[in-house]
Write a structure and sequence with these properties.
Elements: E1 2-7, E2 10-12, E3 18-26, E4 30-39, E5 46-52, E6 57-59, E7 67-72, E8 77-82, E9 91-103, E10 106-113, E11 117-121
Parallel strand pairs: 2-11
Antiparallel strand pairs: 1-3, 3-8, 4-5, 4-9, 5-6, 7-8, 9-10, 9-11
Length: 123
């Protein structure tokens, strides 16, 4: 079993900053891509930023220049530093990871998700 646990959400004023953290734990053999997604009620889940095990990053256009994703492969953690926050950044932010687990001679690769942390940007 693999668990992803997020932390760091909260209420912040427009222009403010927050840092989200996610830790993956369990029977992990390797993690390829880790990422942060966000979702609002009635809307599709949106990729915010992702990072590979090699450090290659990808950002959705609306957060480029404001958000930065970091990863610690040794600790299986991924952080999202969010600066210059806007009201439209308000959402539940979820951590996702492409994880390979090994049980005996069997390897299994699938996506795992955290439960999410709420970020509210409001004055």
């Amino acid at each position: 079993q693999v668990q992803l646990v997020e932390s760091g959400g909260g209420l912040v004023q427009p222009g403010g900053s927050l840092r989200l953290s996610c830790t993956a734990s369990g029977s992990i053999f390797s993690i390829n891509v880790m990422g942060w997604y966000r979702q609002n009620p009635g809307k599709e889940r949106e990729l915010v930023a992702s990072i590979t095990s090699g450090g290659s990053t990808n950002y959705t256009d609306s957060v480029k220049g404001r958000f930065t994703i970091y990863r610690d492969n040794a600790k299986n953690t991924v952080d999202l530093q969010m600066n210059s926050l806007k009201p439209e950044d308000t959402a539940v932010y979820l951590c996702g990871a492409d994880v390979t687990t090994v049980t005996g001679l069997n390897a299994d690769r699938q996506n795992y998700w955290g439960k999410g942390t709420l970020v509210t940007v409001s004055s």
